[in-house]
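Example record

One chain of 281 residues, shown exactly as stored in the release files.
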Amino acid sequence: MNRGSAWLLAVVLACVPASVRAAAPVDLVGQTVAVVRVFQDGVVIDDRTILELIETRTSQPFSLRQVRESVLHLFTRGYFAEVRVSAAAEPRSVVVRYDLFPVPTTGAVDFRGSLGLPAEELLGPITRRFGRAVRTDQIPAAVAMLEDIYQEAGRFAVRISTDTVDGRLVFDVDQGPAALIGHIDFRGVSDENRPGVLRRLELAEGVAYDPADLETRLDDYEADLRGQRYYEARLRHDVSPSPDGRVVDVVLDIQTGSPVGRKRSPARNSMLGTQTWGVPS
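Predicted structure tokens for this chain:
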């Protein structure tokens, strides 16, 4: 290799562990670095947050180890899809160039379709996690986040796809029907007292599943129990959706614990059938 020509050190994000290919010419390693230039999309940059990640320094011996560590630091930021490092020999010195190629990003985010929820409630979590622009490699995670939001609202049949329109990332949303309650099971409640619990919670098989409403009713019920000295009362629920998301099976977990400062009343069973205490219905 003739002096004055450049050689490629590192390419491609997928090859981070072997970012620096083959050995550089022996006559370059150890020579003094005269200049380090950093380019992003072909334009010289002076962003200190980026420059501080590069361990190749001027007036220091040229080192492949420093190049490898610099490339690893740059990739770890998650902003770059590719990093190329080249070096050119000058008389008694080396000129090093880092070329950075950012991960492609989308433009602003938009929503269309049968949202069912205010667009602001969807955009807020996306912006907080991914910023104002979503990278193309982040789109699946953004879709999964939106699906979680809809499922928390009881819409397990939601369907979300993406499109790009005039540089904007568009989420096409079909919220689907509200899931219906299929089977209701219990933990901590005897068979004979289950109808009373369902009446208290205004819950029945075949009705629409509203998780927020159910949680409110469970919280109110728990507060009543605590008002009757059941300070360990914990009322929760879990659901298992069907494959198509149109039906959910509900499990009510009703744990009352023991009342504090009240005598036993063996002749009186609780409404829940799990203690021998008087519990409000």
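Notes: The helical segments are 48-51, 64-76, 119-130, 139-152, 194-201, 211-227.
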